[in-house]
């Protein structure tokens, strides 16, 4: 019997987990090396995972929608020419899974051992219990293997002492909700405790309180009991529909949506941007009539190859960043602990794109080397792969400046949050008809608003205003600007 178990690999940038979106194979299917077997979504992108083995699918470790930790079993394949034995087919899978459960047990079975015991996938406590446990349990047929495996099986059979939890996020969720995770019965493979188990347990106390409320008390109630009685009756009525009542508002809780995957990454980046970057904002109204007229003229002559308005604006932004490179930089702390402004030889222009998975910012790499037509073609490609979930981690994280066209949502302006760790973001509002003074006379013009949010640590208002005015002037006189680019 030769069953090969494939562990979920690190899909980039040290991400510790991924959501299993869907299986591309089923138990009993024949697979070949490098055949896609599953689609998984990380905090950065959606990717297809290829099989490193050829043979017959023996077992799928996980269901669609489940979070799977890196370096834990994803799929087991029975190699060609082998026959699985029911009694031992799962042995390789169980052995790998238990090794990680041992790490999660660090500090539980032997609290007197050294080490923090706070072990994440891929990050251990070398001097702690996890390292000692691995040394005590040799693999294969070495002397002492059977007693070590018996010890592991004994630990697994006592859930109060060693709860089967791989994900540190599940442990944190249980702590935040005041749940003793050792009392839970896991619904995952081998009794693994999942996020859904913790969420189900968190609703149990409320339901218990509702059932117990009508029962008479065994002892006489204190004097304050009558005043508290309405607070007991009201939750019972509200909780009958949803099973949970919000203690702050008194309203029934309609839903709870975990912040995971891309939304979690966006939330963390936005919070970090607001807490770390001392940002300032400048804005200006721009007469874009000439830009629209120029593009209409080009489109009349060559409908297929005329860049979109955003491509022209992006080209002006790139030229502005070449003139004001302070806005195309990053704040970093060096090895000595000193804060530095890191400049770049090139511009990776990020374009904010709204997708079903949240706001993404794919980057046009080395945009300074492209014309407006080149930017337009790369923008179309990046938008397509990003919205289909196929953009790479590098494409989504390599930007050095962000351009955000929120005018497509019908708004004029926005106090945008800088896309951390960048130092500036330029927003473009909708283009609408407005009264405008031209050569001393009132006229109706196509007007938009440009808004620049910037990190005040890298430059002062003069640089930010100079950049913003450069882009605005280029939009108001596009032919002259393009002649110089």
From TrEMBL:
- Describe the location of the Lipoyl-binding domain by residue ranges: 3-79
CDD domains in the record:
lipoyl_domain
Q: Tell me which residues make up the Peripheral subunit-binding (PSBD) domain.
A: 165-202
The record's section on InterPro entries has: 2-oxoacid_DH_actylTfrase, 2-oxoacid_DH_E2_comp, Biotin_lipoyl, CAT-like_dom_sf, E3-bd_dom_sf, PSBD, Single_hybrid_motif
GO MF assignments: dihydrolipoyllysine-residue acetyltransferase activity
The alphabetical list of record keywords is: Acyltransferase, Lipoyl, Pyruvate, Transferase
Q: Which top EC class applies here?
A: transferase
Query: What's the protein name?
Result: Dihydrolipoamide acetyltransferase component of pyruvate dehydrogenase complex
Q: Which organism is it from?
A: Paeniglutamicibacter kerguelensis
């Amino acid at each position: 019997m030769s069953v090969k178990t494939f562990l979920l690999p690190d899909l980039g940038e040290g991400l510790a987990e991924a959501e299993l979106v869907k299986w591309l194979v089923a138990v009993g299917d024949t697979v070949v090396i490098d055949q896609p077997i599953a689609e998984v979504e990380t905090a950065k992108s959606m990717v297809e995972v290829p099989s490193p083995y050829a043979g017959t699918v023996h077992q799928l470790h996980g269901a669609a929608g489940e979070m799977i930790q890196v370096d834990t079993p994803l799929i087991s394949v029975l190699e060609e020419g082998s026959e699985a034995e029911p009694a031992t087919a799962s042995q390789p899978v169980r052995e790998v899974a238990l090794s990680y459960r041992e790490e999660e047990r660090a500090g539980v079975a032997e609290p007197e051992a050294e080490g923090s015991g706070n072990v994440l996938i891929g990050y251990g406590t070398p001097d702690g219990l996890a390292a000692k446990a691995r040394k005590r349990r040799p693999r294969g047929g070495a002397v002492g293997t059977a007693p070590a495996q018996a010890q592991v099986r004994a630990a697994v059979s006592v859930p109060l002492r060693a709860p089967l939890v791989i994900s540190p996020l599940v442990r944190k969720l249980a702590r935040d909700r005041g749940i003793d995770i050792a009392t839970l019965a896991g619904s995952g493979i081998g009794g693994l405790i999942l996020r859904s188990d913790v969420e189900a347990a968190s609703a149990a106390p409320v339901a218990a309180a509702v059932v117990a409320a009508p029962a008479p008390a065994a002892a006489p109630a204190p004097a304050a009991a009558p005043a508290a009685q309405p607070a007991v009756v009201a939750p019972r009525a509200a909780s009958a529909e949803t099973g949970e009542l919000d203690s702050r508002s008194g309203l029934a809780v309609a839903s709870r949506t975990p912040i995971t995957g891309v939304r979690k990454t966006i939330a963390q980046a936005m919070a970090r941007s607001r807490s770390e970057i001392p940002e300032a904002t400048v804005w200006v109204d721009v007469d874009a009539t000439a830009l629209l007229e120029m593009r209409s003229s080009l489109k009349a002559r060559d409908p297929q190859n005329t860049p979109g308005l955003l491509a022209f604006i992006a080209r002006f932004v790139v030229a502005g960043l070449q003139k004001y490179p302070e806005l195309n930089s990053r704040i970093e702390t060096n090895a000595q602990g000193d804060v530095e402004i890191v400049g770049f030889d090139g511009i990776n222009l990020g374009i904010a794109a709204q997708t079903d998975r949240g706001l993404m910012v794919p980057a046009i790499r080395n945009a300074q080397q492209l014309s407006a037509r080149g930017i337009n073609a790369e923008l179309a490609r990046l938008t397509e792969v990003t919205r289909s979930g196929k953009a790479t981690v590098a494409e989504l994280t390599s930007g050095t400046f962000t351009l955000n066209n929120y005018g497509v949502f019908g708004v004029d302006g926005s106090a945008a949050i800088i896309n951390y760790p960048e130092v500036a973001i330029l927003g473009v509002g909708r283009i609408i008809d407005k009264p405008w003074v031209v050569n001393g006379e009132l006229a109706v013009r196509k007007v938009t608003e440009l808004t620049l949010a910037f990190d005040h640590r890298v430059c002062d208002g003069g640089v930010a205003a100079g950049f913003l005015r450069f882009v605005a002037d280029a939009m108001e006189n596009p032919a002259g600007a393009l002649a110089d680019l």
